[in-house]
User: Fold these one by one.
Assistant:
Number 1:
Amino acid sequence: MKRGYRHIKTRLAVIGAGIAGFAASIFALEKAIPVVQLGHTGAIAYTTGYLDLFGVSEAGIIDDPWAGLEQLRRTEPEHPLSRLANEDILTAFEIFTTVLSKMGIGYTVPGSENLHGLLPAGLIKPTLSVPATMLSGIKAMRRNEKTLIIDFEGLAGFSALEFKANFAGKWDQISTHKMSFPGLPSGQAYAETMARAIEVADTRQQLAEKIIQAVNGEKYVGLPAMLGMHEPDEVHADLERLTGLEIFEIPTIPPAVPGIRLREMFERVLPARGLVLEPQLKVKHVDFADQKVHLFLSGPLEDLEVEAETVILATGRFLSGGLNAGRNGLDENLLDLHVSQPPTRNDWYRLDYMDRRGHAINRAGIETDIDMRPLDVNGRPYSDRLFAAGAILAHQDWVRQRCGAGLAIATAYQAVEAAGRFLHG
Amino acid sequence: MIRTVETQVLIIGAGVTGTGIMRDLALRGIKCLLIDRQDLNAGASGGNHGLLHSGGRYASSDTETAAECRHESDLLKRLAPQCIDDCGGMFVAVDGDDPEFAENFPEACAKAGIECESLSIAEAKSREPQLSDKVFAAYAIPDATVDPFRLTLENVNHSMQLNGSSFMPHMQLTGFEVAQGMIKYANVLDTRNNESIRIAAEQFVNAAGCWAMNIAQMAGCDDVSLVYSKGTLIVSNTRITSGVVNRLRPPGDGDILVPGGTVSLLGTSSLTIDDPDNIHPSIDEVDRILSEGEAMLPVLGSSRFIRAFCGVRPLIRSAGSASDGRKASRGFSLFDHEDQGLGNFVTIAGGKLTTFRLMAEKTGDLVAARLGNDKGCQTATVPLPSGGVVHWSEPGLAARNWCKKADPSDLILCECEMVPQSSVDEILLQAPGAEDHMSLKAIALRSRIGKGACQGAFCSMRVTSYLYDRGVYEDNEGMLMMRDFVNERFKGIRPVLWDRQIPQMELAETLHCGMTGLDLVNKKDEPS
């Protein structure tokens, strides 16, 4: 078979298919900038579905993320979120969650306080916005409501007893129940399979009946996240209608539904809104000529050349392939950009894994100017046409600080704004 | 009131020597209680490369130790084959190594009675294709590997079956009560619940490995003097050679690669240290053994390593050994402590994994004689039986059993090593030392859990959930144990973090902190 070849032109190319990449495409579409998004899906499958902004500092859990960011600007002025204004961050968050809700996954409106997102092992994640299907659990915990947590036979890594044991003292009115999922054979079960099965009305009906039988005076019922893949809000509403109960989802360990749900929705809905999405091809090489950027991609069957006026690099860290860690140092994979990093391998990690200060390697990454343009070792922009967003940025620890989504959304917003200014220059 | 436990012989230290003594005595009909400050193989017995020495390593410098190794390894291959992979070994010299040392090797082996076959370079490379092109001399010798976890588990299991001897883990010795030249009681603290227990015995055996000097001192004996030599090894994620490959030169860093089931272990460094506690493998040591190892096997430079670990060799201090662990004797010493004024205390110290049976025999002879037991040692003739629940440490076994049983409701908890929940159940119910208070760490010690490519990132969460589901924990104790487990694992992972291990680590941290919140878990008395 002959190898295919295509050539496309665009004003903006986004490299990366994580939250930052999709957020950049969404902001570009909102501004009517023609956009092509390239690259494999990153670490999006590992998300809880929660959109955190800034949840934890060395002092502990942060309740007011906006005040927390003001504090961060004093303690960590180089942090990417320190360099953006709260009002821009809020605008970015509002646009993003509004678009997600319109696209088919309802998200709560970002407010002035962090919500205590529930985690499967019975701890919390301070987070700014949560999927609508997860909200009533947060309410139930805050008010110590009588709640039934259900787990399913065969779903490894989710135990209602574990959830209950670790919330003990904070949320005492939890009872638990283990049941089989209707229609599934016994054996290893996956949340993804359940999520697709429950989209069938008959399965939903059967599950509703089992839930009704299991409750004993509880008004709230928590389930592992599996309330549908494509229309979670409809599935959720229907299950609440069928049971007459307040139902909520709890994220599970990967492979987990909330991340797959987001990915599938982006891939399904964004092309219909004008995004040219090329998720199968890998960017092999990028060439910055005088007036254009040429991106060369290849896949198993075809090659693609993209001619873009501007590029946003949102390729993530090590797991998504943005950065590479050799025995003698860290580098950036696509353009060999300058990577701010600790002096030696000995400095990458502390001796104590769970040290609350986190590890230096997680703060390595690309440094940019205020317009999100990556800087070379001398502090000069690599190109006027190149912008960076998301986890690849230096001077942040998104895992420990619970700021991954906020970082992705806010820096993608800033990068698109800057790219827009350049294009309309 | 303090609880008193009575036994004929108390053995302190549940490494391979302590458990070997337990079995030796049990075979003579003597009832033992074995205790350990932590759990089985917590010291050097669990921190070595699992080499069953042919003696070749010592042939050029210490004929006596070499001959001892040859004799003991022959015995173990016959009597405990289930613990041994008789994979053979090779000594190779590469450009830059001393040709005279290589030339004299066959004669040194002959003196110690070790079979040594000279190989052509082509023959050596056909046996081990990964060997460097710079190899100029190669000899085959009968090296093998032994699973030290299986060995200790089998020793304990057999002793329990023989005469009801027993094992109590997590017992910290706090002191001895001595009267009229005899120890009356050993006082211990159960570190899991802080219960003080008094153990009465007729004879007390100190087999505490690198802590033997401290234990002897607690009994007022100052005759045991040890040098602590720290050794670091790294584990690859695949098996690189079919047999053991040794560097043919005087012992040095990175001079041996030992297969261990589905992986290989590259070792070993030697660093004299002052304190055997709180050690961890360092990045410097890993870089050093790796660059030396690459001289023999260039493929090591691009191999994926999943973990490093270290142990402390307890070496007997002798003239000239104070500053260099490598030159100290690898032999062992038995102290009867009679010149220290004690008639029922014995310390066994030094030695090596390969000679553990002989060490146990000599100790057993002394203890039995003092008890008036003349039955004689039987470990050189009675095979070590293969017990039921001790085998989950064998690579691949859990997977084979799971396939054979084909019960779809038996969930896989560790996907790297295919360990199903039924193995965890079995370990919880029956494995030696598992009677109560089973932690994730203790289950991992007795199975392959956490030993695969993800190094416990996923299975720690699944097993913890499962233990909660079984009602093992009722508060956040399980979460704290999981935190301890991943923290402990990290010490070994940290020095081999580069290339493909970094994305793994990033994912693990995302799961443990973002998804689980382990970094924010607090003990009840810790501030939040």
Number 2:
Amino acid sequence: MIEINSNSLIEIDKPFKVFAGPGAGKTFWLINHTKNVLRNSKKLSSTAKIACITYTNIGVDEIQKRLENNGDRVYVSTIHNFLYKFIVKPYAFLLKDNEGNYIINLKNLDGHDEHIPNNKFIFKWKSLNNIGYIKEDERIYECLQNLDWSLNETNELDLNPRDIWRKKVGKYSIKSDYFYSYKQLYWHNGQIHHEDVLYFSYRIITEHPEIIKFIHLKFPYIFIDEFQDTNPLQTQIIKKIANSGTIIGVIGDSEQSIYKFQGAKRQDFLDFDLPNLEIYQINGNRRSTKAIIKLLDNLRNDKIAQTSIRQIEGVSPTIYSDNRLQVIQKLQISHPDLVILSRKNETVGQIKNSNNRVLGDLWTISRNLDSNFDRQRLLYNAIYAAELCLLGNYKDAARIASKIFYKFSNGNKINDTKKKELAISIIDYLISHKNNNLSKTILEFHNTLFENLSRNYQVTVGAKISKGAFKDFAQEKTYANLVQSLRIKDDTSNIKTIHKAKGAEFNNVLVVFDSSDELKYILESQKHQIDDDSRIYYVAFSRARDNLFLHVNEPISIENMNKLMLFGIKEGILTK
Amino acid sequence: MYISKIEIHNFRNFKNSTIEFNEGINCIIGHNNAGKTNLLKALSLIFNCNENRKLSIDDFYKKIDTTVYFEKEATGELKRQAPPKIRISAFITQSTGDKIDNEIVPDDNNTVYDWRIQTTPHYIAQLTFECFLPDGEDTKEYSECINKLISESNTTQTDFWALIKRKFIFKYISRIYCGNPALKNRADSDDLNRFDFQFLNAIRDVEKELFTGKNTLLKDVLRYFLDNSIDINTSLSDIQKNDEKNHVHSIFEQKSSDLIAHLKQRINTEPILKYSKDVGASLGGEPNFEGEVDEIEMFSTLRLIIEKELNIKLPATHNGLGYNNLIYISILLSKMQMSRSNYVSDDEKKIFPMLVIEEPEAHLHPSMQYKFLKFLKDNLKTKKEVRQVFITTHSTHITAAVELDEIICLNMINSDEFNIAYPGKVFDLTNETDKKSKAYVKRFLDATKSDMLFAQKVIFVEGIAEQLLIHCLANYMGKSLEDFHVAVINVNGRYFNHFLKLFDYLDTDPFKKNAIKRKVVCITDADPTQKDNTKPEPKFKKCYPFELDADLVNFEYKKLSEILNSLLVEFGSHALIKIESRTDGKGKTFEYELAQKNPTIEILLSDNIANKAELKDLIKAYKDNKTLSEMLVLLKSATIKNAIINSVWTNDLEKKAAIIAARYLQSIENTSDSGKGEHALNLDINLRENFQKGNPIGFEVPDYVINTINYVC
């Protein structure tokens, strides 16, 4: 292990692994290293590129911005987008079934999406496998939504729910063999899910090893940030590419691994090895004040203490237990750029909408009640797109909204240009009517939107809400409820989940606990290492540069408060 | 990698054609209007990033069967919902040639990365240009318009195209797809731009394009080569190079500012500036003149000149067109070198320079054509500034200079039928005879014989006499070989079979399908032979036709030569190749046949012929209806005399004509080689004179020659 700092230049033609704690300046280092390779590498011909891979689109934008004028020499992307663009999209034509047909309907293939089970497909799948007798659709839905690929002991790919207990629906257990036919229904439609991108990439490069050579020539260097959240399939793909000669560099901090629920395996990062791999460690924390670092050091399982580079003592992290809304209001006045982080999506929704309503996962409920998938897609994609647009993410907004449209009412296909046009109209309509719509029931909102589409654009999507359990639901819940329940993937707002704040830094951070019970993840962090619970709060706290605030919604026991004070946390009281 | 194939659908004169290319040089030949330029245009639509990809109605294949666009399904819907589209697919294949390990060139890989349709054992990438009416409201309107035409029963081809031209062609869009075109993935223009498509068209006005530093092409090149001598100086380090460049630049700066100061000093600015004072412009500040000039601006003052001898300088515009063309091409090559070098940004570096030249022979003397071709070949092989060359040509000198394998022959059989031939690929190299034939053709396909590749029809002949006379004989039949683009090729012997392989077309055979589909006739001598079995080690020797079957006890006979026989066996029933000879046992050679057919015609006797007096006597005797024995008295050849006496022929008139023919042939054969040529030449003159007079003496063309000419004309 070689100790370096964020300005150090390392040898460019050896694979590397860099351990870097929060605030170590690893993005800064990665940018410097990338520039160093660009300037000095003999392996980059005029068409070859460096791939910089990071975990979120926000991270991508950040690196892109900091690289400035690299022309096209650096390709910055998330792992899924990278694999999709350079393996799945160009080479999926190599994957054929026994009849010689493409496994994916390539004609309709257009990116990869979140897996939202389609009722129509579930129904079809059940009859295909003669399992119509399994009635608990909600459980089936949850089981299917949880599906993911994994490598088994013999290096074959299995498809099962991540939580294996979900296979059991009531008294029946769904056979693993059935899941594949479920996925096929999507693929035959040209739809693939995020997790399928890894699956197809792995298959393509395993069955057609020449592709690895092509990738190697195009990308003599691939650097991957946040590698502590890699999953085994991804690790295998990276290793295969490394074997072809591409210089692989991975960067991460196992203490910040928080995606176990999505199949991430932090041990993979610790174990990651390649021939000639150099291991580096960037010490120091150039982000936070000494007071915050003190708290952070106490939470690290590996007990590696970070030295403060800023050398500013700073204010001790402060914990509040007053009324949440009041705390937020007060802090927002004293710290206008305050970023609020919470573990649960539900909490984020409540804070965003300044209420304490417990809505549950409204979208899943809605989809379960409604057999009309097209209607659900219209609702979801339209509302989601409008919210993305309000956050400034126009590109994804347009992409998602255009997926609503397929055919005109008269049956004619809608071409791509027209789809884009319709997408923009619908987003525009939703944004300009948002204030009006917020208080409307889903029923009222949907049926107006439906009529508007068919009257003004000659497009029929789904159907009017007219009867059944879904009608009851739609009459009861409002547009505002649906917005509150949305999970936005690359949330750039100041209120978001901790997972979405990964890799980011903010001046002032308020971390909202869902219950005071969660304090145990801080107080007894050693006990909670198997799951990500403690690390999640470690990630949350380490986002803060200057001020860190905590909030629990119940009074803190004196015992707990004493313990907290040992970590350098002081109690805050709202002054009227 | 190299462009290995192009498929052209509905474009100009290509209905549906596939043309295969070689790595390296591709020499595209074909008669006028065969589509050579259109083929280059098709390549340009894909690979030339400066090409205007908007097409017009005239870019469509003219003979598209438009009736299908008026046909309806049982449901009343149109069978074709969209109007015709143009599609051109180019295939790019990994080079497999000289590299054993099949190493992939990184830049090639990265350029065609997502264009592939095959990945192993070698990759193939595909690009497809399509020009079509996009699906949507426009196609709906199109359907309505067609239905209207149907209801008005205006459904002719003209109606159809008029509609497209008036309402739809400007709504057509062009796209370049990569990979499987059905998937409609558009090719990235950055990747397409890696191809450097340098096109020199036939009608190039080099003077306009070049020769002053104002021209951007020349400017670019000059800029690139500015200080190039420092760059290529290997004894200097990078830092030293930079220092040296800065040094020479500062010298330039100093000198140019001196020059400007000098210039400024000579201008009396006062009167000019006075006005500005008067009108009040100077209130905003005192106007003055200032200026600087950099190297690039100074290029504008440079002109290309030609220094013929010491102190004689001519502007390039006064140079010959041919040389200027070469200069133009050389500057273009310099630019291509530049586009691949570090001088341009990595992102814009060209990785596949292709040179596309229409008729390089324009203004070039044959020997210069040869030199130019040799240069291109060397460049491809060693310097690699150009990676693939496409040239169209009408020059037999160029086809003679390139390899047989590099020739692609666009052959318009009739207005509907197209045949694309690859003369180098008709030979099955696992077969010894084919191997020999290929070597033979390569060896003897010189500039004169190359004509067989260009002409629409070919007559192969054995010798100089046929070659010279056949044109005139055609005239006697009221025909002209030139009008029908017939090439008469003298193979100087009987090795027709090697050349015939180039034309032995058979669509079901993997080799013969590459042959040129073209009418070909071989005129060959019957050359009967006999074998005297009483002699030790008997051999077949040439004989006269009237000797055949005379002594069946001691002799064996063949009325046709070995070669003619085998030709007849091989091509006797060929669809396009005809073998013509006199095969009834009465024929011998071309000259023999001329005389036998025209025993009374004295103009056959040229001044150079031996035994002229004797021949004249024989002709006179024949004319005067003298008996056979009377004629035999006049005959001074004992061989012929004995043969006639012993002949099994019964018709005296035939025998008399045979005497003249045999003695005539003998006399020609006794003259020297140059004499024979001269005889043929004189004979040609005599026959032409007679023809111009209206053939008063009644000269007749031998039957098999008539057949030959009728076949090709």
Number 3:
Amino acid sequence: MSLSFLVICLAGLGLYSFFFGRHRIRAISRQSELKQHSQDTYHGSFLLICTTLLPLFILIIWSSFSPLILNAMLRSKLDILAGPLSVGEMGVQLAQAKALYAGIINPAFVGDSVKQAAAYYGELVSMSNTARAVLVLSAAVAGIGYGARLLDVRFRARHRVESFAKWLMILASAIAVLTTIGIILSLIFESLRFFDKVSLSEFLFGLQWSPQIAIREDQAGGSGSFGAVPLFAGTLMITLVAMLVAVPVGLMSAIYLSEYASPRLRNIAKPTIEVLAGIPTVVYGFFAALVLAPLLRNGGNDIGLTVSSESALAAGLVMGIMIIPFISSLSDDVINAVPQNLRDGAAGLGATQSETIRQVVLPAALPGIVSAILLAISRAIGETMIVVMAAGVAANLTANPFESVTTVTVQIVMLLVGDQEFDSVKTLAAFALGLVLFFITLGLNVLALYVVNKYREQYD
Amino acid sequence: MTDVTTPEQLAKAKRAANLAKRYRSERRFRAFGMAAVLTAMGILGFLMTSIVYSSIPAFTHHHLTLDVVVDESRVELMVDDNNQTSVDGNWLGLVRASLRAHFPEVTSRRDKRKLYGLLSIGAGDGLAQMVNDTPSLIGQTVQIDVPLSDDVDLLIKGLIDRTLPEQDRLISDLELSWLDKLTADGLVHRAFAWALFNNGDSREAEMAGLKGAFVGSLLTIFVTLLVSFPLGVLAAIYLQEMAPKNRLTALIEVNTNNLAAVPSIVFGLLGLAVFISFFQMPRSAPLVGGLVLALMTLPTIIIATRASLASVPPSIRQAAMALGASRIQVIMHHVLPLAMPGILTGTIIGLAQAAGETAPLLMIGMMAFIVDTPTDVTAKATVLPAQIYMWANNPERAFVARTSAGIVVLLSFLLTINALAIILRKRFEKRW
Amino acid sequence: MTTTPAKITTRDVTVYYGDAQALHGIDMDIQANQVTALIGPSGCGKSTFLRCINRMNDVIEDCRVGGSISIDGQDIYDGSIDVVELRARVGMVFQKPNPFPKSIYENVAYGPRIHGLAENKSELDHMVETSLRRAGLWQEVSDRLHTSGSGLSGGQQQRLCIARTIAVNPNVVLMDEPCSALDPIATAVIEELIEELRADYTIVIVTHSMQQAARVSQRTAYFHLGNLVEQGDTDSIFTNPANKQTEAYISGKIG
């Protein structure tokens, strides 16, 4: 029984159980003197939950894990049919057998062992589907039977339904935590496998990054160099350029808009600047690579500078533009949170407006601004598309912003894009870089939170 | 009192001198602020203008009007089991033959190939469609507009400079003379580039369209919405309305805020490791892309929903509770409906963010070259931003305009979504 | 004093908000079909006490209630009590009128709906009409039942809230300063209404206005700093208070 048909059957049973439950409680209630505890709808809903909860659970578990199990069984079958196979051959034959079963490839192009395996796989799949359907539907029917026996005038159906809803909500809240755990575990797990092959100190302090060599199979043990220092340096340089753009422009516009600008200008300028935040990063990447980089290169040539067409400068400048609204809206919030009486106090002493801002407002808002900048740095470090499109791929260790550098995120993309074996050192390296990225951004966020909480305004 | 200066006068003179300086600094500071605002707005203007400007050529394309003889000997009418007729033939060959009829002097193989190069590789597609729709055209002569190749198109649009020396230009003098003759005959004309919207991806710039990527984006966003909206709203309700204030809920809250700041590419790594590598879900599928984006959007929705729930005044909750509504009834009957506009606005903004996201989707292979329009969430697909990324990597000149046009379409799409959110907020927003 | 058993009996009721004690051992007997007024200076715990009677304090974090409160001899803090059912029996009207942002009809119909009191639409219509009539609002709103309840004046809104409360058919109605947000005319209307409702409901009212307590109530309890200082028939409390503090408050010396 196919998945969609099974889901439709289950939905039908669920619907039936809902109306059945409502109908049944009405019948029971008519013959009883007692006041009914819960309304009819709750009895119906209770029965609906009884009918669908367990089957849905079975369905999800079965559908998630049966491909894994079937795959393993197919693998062992192929081992028997075709004798010992290398990892690569096994992969090819597995894919062929599945494709043959799905009818995507012509049987004429595959070997006998694959044909047999495909037939075997077909049997497995149909067996698995039948078992799934039997299990799911019988659980649903059993659910109706169990639930219907509980229905009674004094049965607290509303309590049951509501506590179910509550558990559903708790489960949903847990997803956010599970996502974090999933990120940490998958990054750490893959990184540990990477550090089996490349030492941690080489990764963190090595000056040479050239992962390309490692995929060549004749180089046993994969002797590509995985020294990530050039990546860190490149990331840092681009982030620095970005901050040099974003902090002055973002902060000054926030100050001007909240302290000086007329309401009219403010109403136009604020949303306009925030549009910058809504532009997808791939657009910035395009802008950096195809508009700004040629401009910089030609401009550099005119004044006798050699600017690489994938310079750190172009990527950094555009990233800075992307971050402007981030800094300006966060600073705007903290500047507005500074109480008016502080400004009045300074003005009353005869300070000019700019003196008030520089000597009173900004120091009061400083923790918030610092935290905004930290968050902006975290965002710049994690930004991917701009650097993938506008920064380089080659890992140069340089302090010259006109040269091409590469970043952590660029390398993650380069290592993972394209078809390759999932377990190679190259792909594992991407996870190690991801781990570094995750912890650095996490650290910056926590630090930003700490700065705000520790030095938050003492005035109220 | 000519020489005598009292301390008061001295102080006054000092203040006056100082004041001028202070006012200068005040003006300077103000000017910096103004400059910053103008810079930010100017950059936005420059960015938008440059992209829209460079996209303009992609929205039109030059076509050649040809009289094509649908030669019976070169097409084949087929009837399948269901009595459906279809016509197969060398359409491009027919179109090319008709072009050659204009230039009988071209005979050498090399020149013929050059001549045919004026036309797009997809020049026969329109004819195929036409004859398949009306098989009675077989044996007749039909007038049809066929697309020119991208380089020829650029030349006519003036984007390739025809005054350059021949070796620096993509179009040779010979080709140029043919083109001039066709133009003089009034056979070349400009039309709206429907291919941009009706076609899937292609290696040929003039044939490449956004339809596949657009449908891929819709499917992906659909999955994202389906997963992240219920999960986010349920989680937010629990955290805001029901959870006891303890360490665990504080942890969940901190965690949610941190998750919102995790770089998107890390979510891509998660998707690769968990969905593709562990659960063996298909690569490049909207299902996986949607799941990854859903996890990424979840914190946004949770945070927006909580803020929206918190803005519903407690008096409403008390009133309902005092009438004997249970906690869940209070939420479902009163609080949630009142918070819904805010929740929907937050969700739409989160989805717009997800729709513009590229990096995590690259990790799970949603940047493959896919011609066909995906039909379901497990089919191979790409999304608009990834399509833009792929086109941007294409060195051909005509793809620059194509990419810009893709960006214009993406931005219009996002603008529509965001406008929806703004309208929703304006229409239903309730102030307490 | 009456000889009928009290409708509501409280024994040694204490309330803590965290570490702060808000009520100290309150013993009270509240009679059926009477209006009992709770008076006292701000922060004396009278509202807190009122909220104990329908367990509205349950939702406040770190609020603990000790002692026992029974209605018709049944302990309402007993584990077997369904708080939802309790609140259907013990309705509450709040200080600020808080109609739902729905139509007038929906406001009144909400309670009967969730408790499944009406079998069909006409029965529900009937309940809505009766409740609005009893609250003295029918004349004013019968032609605009389906307009928003928040479009009414403050006094009308408060009567709508009363209509909404009695639509559930409770036997106790708690009122937490129901007139404090209203003008004198609207207040007089509500006071009249309270007098009428007394025939069918046991009413407990918290009020800041001594005149109001004197006008509407049969019994009065004076709270001070979380203690129940004095309780008794309203007449005797106002004319001849036994306690110095009560006397000082009533005569306007403190409060």
